[in-house]
Amino acid sequence: GWAFVLGYAISAMIQTFVPKHRLTRHMGEVGVKSTGIASAFGAISSSCSFAALAAARSLVMKGANWIAAIAFMFASTNLVIELGILIYIFLGWQYVAAEIIGGLLLIAISSILIKLIYPTKWLEEARKKVEDETPDDDDFDPWERMASREGWHMVGHQFVMEWKMVWQEILIGFTIAGLMKAFVPPAFWEALFLQGVGEDFPSWLVTLENVMIAPFVAAATFIGSMGNIPLATVLASSGVGFAGLMAFIYSDLMVPPLVKVNARYYGWKVALYIAGIMFVSIVCTALILDAGFGFFGMPPEGAASDAAEQQFAIDYTFFFNIAFVLVAAALLWLHRRH
Q: What CA–CA distances, in Å, run from 189 to 69, 183, 220, 253?
């Protein structure tokens, strides 16, 4: 509870006080600068997968190049603060480190792939499809807004709007994770991800199978970025390996509803092109992470933390939750004043 309130409170403040207009003007040219700005912009934006797609579409409308738009999508669903807090609680600090390093790798690999495979005609047609819409201009003085009462009313309002976008995703994610924990035996996941096969298959083949199948498992759950962490915890506790788990976490943008949203924005050809770029980037990133962490002797253990198994107790989590209930109440009051 406290992690969600903290994460979305910080997100609401950043989105309210950071003038996005000043960032988007630098995203038109292809290059390290525009990709870096898009990644930073994504990292301080909403963690909602649907919001990430809508914001990326807005960037395309404002003239951002496609590499920057996809970098933004990866960053906004893998590098945001609230996701890192949740991963830390449920999976541990090593997975947070892997998430951040992997998020940057995803952006780098997808950028290279787009440069190599750039269907100019498709992407120009997609840009024209959204050009007729006029984006909102949100240029303002951040210091003036921070010093104003109205600015903090906007923070409360943004906090509530964030929750309206993600509460269903979070609820469904935890519910599916609970059902799978209760009714799907670990043997199913072990068989699906070839765990415990011993000498039957070489380890590299098991790892490759894991990262290839994980995106399809994620797609079958229909869960977005924040909702898939509880299910990742279930997979981890069932013995699924590090590489497969990271590929699963990164695949939130490939669930069918999100592909369909991209198809509505840009057409099916471009939507499937984006999904293909993401799939290849995810597989490559998960393999590199597995090799890198293994080389340095730091591969996270397959088992998750005890977070999903803990019972109610009067401990620091209880008092954190009480404190952040008050923070949430204050933000709701600010929303009402908006």
A: 34, 12, 14, 22
- Residue 108 makes CB contacts below 8 A (sequence gap 6+) with none
Do 262 and 270 touch, CB atoms closer than 8 A?
A: yes
Instruction: Check if the beta carbon of residue 105 is closer than 8 Å to that of residue 292.
Output: no
Closest CA to 75 of 61, 97, 62, 56: 56
Contact indicator for 282, 245 with CB cutoff of 8 Å: no
Q: What's the CA angle centered on 232, arms 307 and 107, to 5 degrees? A: 120
Determine the Cα–Cα distance for residues 250 and 245; give it in Å rounded to an integer.
Answer: 9
Which of 336, 327, 334, 335 is CA-nearest to residue 3? Answer: 327
Please give the backbone phi and psi of residue 3, each rounded to the nearest 5 degrees, phi first.
Answer: -65, -40
C-alpha distances out from residue 299 to 161, 290, 296, 306, Å = 38, 7, 8, 18
Provide the CB-side half-sphere exposure for 156 (13 A, CA): 17
User: Which residue is it, tokens 């909702």?
Assistant: 227
Q: What angle do CA 277, 193, 233 make, to 5 degrees?
A: 85
Distance of CA 129 to the CA centre of its chain: 26
pLDDT at residue number 314: 84
Low-confidence ranges of the chain (pLDDT < 50): 303
Is residue 273 within 8 Å of residue 241, measured between CB atoms?
no
* pLDDT, position 220: 81
pLDDT at 212: 92
Number of Cβ within 10 Å of residue 109's Cβ equals 21
pLDDT reported for residue 106: 94
Q: Are 239 and 185 in contact (CB under 8 A)?
A: no
Residue 56 has a pLDDT of 82
Q: What is the pLDDT of residue 177?
A: 75
pLDDT recorded at residue 322 = 93
The pLDDT of residue 64 is 81
In sequence order, what are the residues at sequence separation of 6 or more whose Cβ sits closer than 8 angstroms to the Cβ of residue 324? Answer: 1, 2, 5, 6
What is the torsion angle, in degrees rounded to the nearest 10, for the CA atoms of residue 268, residue 269, residue 274 and residue 278?
Answer: 100
Q: How long is the chain?
A: 338
Please tell me the pTM assigned to this model.
0.76
- Specify the pLDDT at position 260: 86
